[in-house]
Amino acid sequence: MESQLEVWLILALVAASWGQESCNCATNRWTLCEEDESGRCTCTLVGSDRRVDCSTLTSKCFLMKAQMTPRKSKRFHSPGTPLVGNEGLYNPDCEDSGGFKARQCDPSGTCWCVDSAGVRRTEKGDRSLSCGELTRTSCIYVELKHSMARAFEDGEVANALERLLQNRYRLCPEYIAGVKYDAPFIQIRLNQDDSEKSDRDVDIADVAYYFEKDIKNDSVFHTNNKLNVSVNGKALDIENIQIYYIDETPPQFSARRMISGITVVVTVVTLIIIFGVTVLVILRWRRVRNYERFEIRNGSSQKSNLTV
């Protein structure tokens, strides 16, 4: 009887453990997932009570916020490096919909304006800074480089990456403007206007963020869903990624920043010219001095010959 009870206890523990393992968010590992009494799995974002739709991608703003949340358990992922962009390390303010708020501020009160991809597009100011409406990132260029173990046909690479963007990242094909391939370089262009995007469509900024995380071995997907890119059954080993964001309107950086950059360049060039001129003067002076010494020595030898 006791042995049967032990068996039942073991089976119950195994079932509970299996239930916990099966209750996870396939598209976001920065979540806490639990099963309710009815057996339904619900997931919330780390650091908040916000419910996560695990059938699609989580917004970039929510993911950045989850990354900045201190980890209190080994169940959570701890990023190896801090999240640093052109605006520095910051904890973003997000709309309820998941988008970035147009104005972002750090704890010191320094504020700046961002686009829909969370990229800074203005000079920094104080809390009086006004950003207006959020500017949309309508075009994204993703530049990749793969290892030169082998080269592929242009069409094969384009088809493989288009399938990857559609199947793994749920991106509609009409937002993939093109894929160019010149071994070992690949360029992907994503276009998405506000007028085209529906509420159910994933944002190209979220796709680019997920893709970048995958390439850098810091995937947002659940640990059982690793990135595997292949072209006709052969692995496409991507070793570098660079992302460029283009907004509907140009960024608003002041001319003072450009002037300061130009000033630095002019200063460096001036110093190089001064150094070069100084070197030429020293070399010429040494050459003239050596020539004068030769003339003196030659004149002395002629005098001694005449004396003899």
How does this structure look, described?
- With 308 residues, the chain is an alpha+beta fold.
- The protein has one domain.
- The protein has helices at residues 2-22, 60-67, 154-167, 204-215, 255-307; strands spanning 31-35, 41-45, 103-105, 111-113, 137-146, 176-182, 185-191, 230-231, 234-235, 238-247.
- The strands form four sheets. A four-stranded antiparallel sheet has the order 6-7-5-10, with helices on one face.
- The longest helix is centred in the last third of the chain and has 53 residues, at 255-307.
- The radius of gyration is 31 Å and the shape is extended.
- Mean pLDDT is 81; it is low at 5-20 and 72-88.
- InterPro entries: EPCAM-Trop-2_C, EPCAM/Trop-2, EpCAM_N, Thyroglobulin_1, Thyroglobulin_1_sf.
- It is found in: Membrane.
- Pfam families: EPCAM-Trop-2_C, EpCAM_N, Thyroglobulin_1.
- Keywords: Disulfide bond, Glycoprotein, Membrane, Signal, Transmembrane, Transmembrane helix.
- Residues 58-139 form the Thyroglobulin type-1 domain.
